[in-house]
Amino acid sequence: MQVSVFVNKYFLVIMSTISLVAAIGRRGELGKGNQLLWHIPEDMKRFRFLTSGHSVIMGQKTYESIGRALPNRTNIIMTKDASFHAKGCIVMHSLEDVMKFIYENNPETEVFVIGGGMIYTLFLPFAKKLYITLVDAEFDADVFFPEYESMFILSHDEPHSDENFSYRFTEWKRKISDNA
Ligand SMILES: NC(=O)c1ccc[n+]([C@@H]2O[C@H](COP(=O)([O-])OP(=O)(O)OC[C@H]3O[C@@H](n4cnc5c(N)ncnc54)[C@H](OP(=O)(O)O)[C@@H]3O)[C@@H](O)[C@H]2O)c1
User: Is 122 in the pocket of ligand 1 (CB under 6 A)?
Assistant: First the structure.
């Protein structure tokens, strides 16, 4: 199939550049009603620090919940809707289109997948690194992060708290055996 030929051709290059960045609750909760479940200013600051100057990939629903292009980043929005336009953003309609774009534009720069649930699930098999803020609480949610702990190893774990939540900035690297 054309997709698998394409993915095989660029697989190693692309895998070295794709990272996922997310904040999740104890059960992997991501959001509800197309909104985030918490407001953690330090986490927003970390998100800005990590992603500024890079390309960010998001689903159409996450874009709608943010409501604008994120400044100082190349915003890539994924949708199947051929008529969809978003000011200041690049719109792409398939995983293959995004892979080709990454390969042609950012082969050695980190590219960040920023959600939501559908898009994290789509890109997790290609991610080399995960930046996950683990929020130590349970939430009523309708979107969840996919299972990742069997494929990744914890490489960084930094505890934080504010007046509302305890949370940890964690980083995960893909296990070598899953890297081919
Ligand atoms: N906690 C966090 O770190 C975090 C981060 C980001 C988002 N969120 C939350 O996650 C929720 C949104 O997640 P979600 O899963 O509902 O939506 P999403 O992943 O943001 O977007 C889903 C949309 O992406 C498009 N899409 C999916 N697969 C595609 C493909 N293969 N090719 C082209 N387009 C594709 C489709 O758009 P069309 O239907 O237009 O075709 C689909 O409806 C919200 O609650 C948001 O607040 C949380």
Answer: yes
